[in-house]
Amino acid sequence: MFILGDDAQRTRGRDAQTSNIAAGKAVADAVRTTLGPRGMDKMLVDSTGTVVITNDGVTILEEMDIEHPAAQMLVEVAQTQEDEVGDGTTTASVLAGQLLATAEDLLADDVHPTTIVEGYAAARDIGHAAIDDCRLDEDVDDDLLRRVAATSMTGKGTGDANAEALADLVVEAVRQVADDDGAHRDDVRVHTQPGASSGATELVRGIVTDTEPVREDMPRDVADASVLALDTSLDTRETNADVEYDITSVEQLNAALDAEERELKRYAETVRDAGVDVLVSQKSIDDRVAAFLAEAGVLAFESVKQTDVSAIAAATGATVVGDVTDVESDDLGYAESVRVERYGEDDLAFVEGGADARTVTLLVRGSTAHVLDELERAIGDALDVVAVALDDGGVVPGAGCAEIAVADRIRDEAARIDGRAQLAAEAFADALDVLPRTLAENTGMDPIDALVDLRAENETGRAGVVTDGERGEIADPIAHGVIDPAAVKHEALAAATDAATMIVRIDDVIAAE
């Protein structure tokens, strides 16, 4: 009996498992060399010739256009890691790939997939407890947060700006928007602007948007500004009906034009009389209205992106209104300063609120588009991990130290696991070794010797693979300022385990062509 169409392909049993595991391992191998401060970059070129140069795990996997369904699961691991904690995407992907490799050896020894899943789950739970025990007994102060941010950015493309200098800006930005409810990461915006070195990156206490005044004769710097946000155009109104006007004389034409002129002038007078200093419109502003506004000394911007209008409204306390004739004083926002500055051929508008601003922007500079893109990714990751560390309140030693501690704990407690699941738990611990081993390899050290030394040092103290200049060494990561949020480790452990066990459990692949 045939239940599948002629164009369907079916792969079953060990062949299906081998194919899926091979695909997952290939994805992990693609990003493995990017791990750590001495990781390498990847150049990705799409069908249109667009080039992306990065060592960010999730960016690499998303740009690779992966089609194999099992391989896509590892892409989802990186995406989940990015969405949840903002960093550790390469760690999660590499760990998932190594878990698949150890699972392949277990399958070859006739360990059932369900047993592997059971052992992996038990090891994962032990690992979570071990991560919590690795937490540092230190208050999460600004100095600790700066080390977390610098660790996240080390090895990524930061141009001529060192990670420590950028870390100061990142921590300052997150602290600015944090309150008793936590760090509001979405209130920190990143705006990129080419034309200068990355060392010119600065923190703006407010909003930066790439827009210019409607007219050149408008003011370019307004202090103590009342701000009006609009989502409607300032133009002559159009009727919804299909109406024709029969004008038979010059007098009638002039009367119609005068009426239109009065309507447009009334818009500008309404804005002026409401005490508006700065007008930000999501839609267009008629040239005549703009001229009237310029005469009244109002700085106006048109066709501003909806997200920017909303952000400006939120930052200044303004209400986005849809009818300029209904503007009330409560609809207006306040900004300490609104200014327009020229960067090369571009104008940027700065809407600043001073020390009390609840929305801030990191104005990221870069000499080239490729440098700027990678710097934006690095700063985005740093902002995420600082916010996570501040909210979660826990950090652990980096540089592979936490992974060694977790692997040792799993090996110590694996004897309590019944049956063949114990073998899977021990294989899980072996898989964790891939992370410090890869760090050592990417730093130029002998990975086997480094792993042996790491295990020995962690028996009596605390050690990881740290970099000193161009070479690596086994040393205390805390003394070298290499620190990661505990939440990043937890998420990588959980996401990698979930993906690996899901792939291992598949024994039948049915594909339609």
UniProtKB/TrEMBL annotation:
Molecular-function annotations in GO: ATP binding; ATP hydrolysis activity; ATP-dependent protein folding chaperone; unfolded protein binding
Coiled-coil residue spans: none
Keyword line: ATP-binding, Chaperone, Nucleotide-binding, Stress response
The keyword ATP-binding belongs to this UniProt entry's keyword annotation: yes
Taxonomy, superkingdom: Archaea
InterPro entries reported for this sequence: Chaperone_TCP-1 (IPR017998), Chaperonin_TCP-1_CS (IPR002194), Cpn60/GroEL/TCP-1 (IPR002423), GroEL-like_apical_dom_sf (IPR027409), GROEL-like_equatorial_sf (IPR027413), TCP-1-like_intermed_sf (IPR027410), TCP-1_chaperonin (IPR053374), thermosome_alpha (IPR054827)
Short name of one Pfam family: Cpn60_TCP1
Record-linked NCBIfam families: thermosome_alpha, thermosome_beta
Family: Belongs to the TCP-1 chaperonin family.
Record's protein name: Heat shock protein 60 family chaperone GroEL / Thermosome subunit
Organism: Halarchaeum acidiphilum MH1-52-1
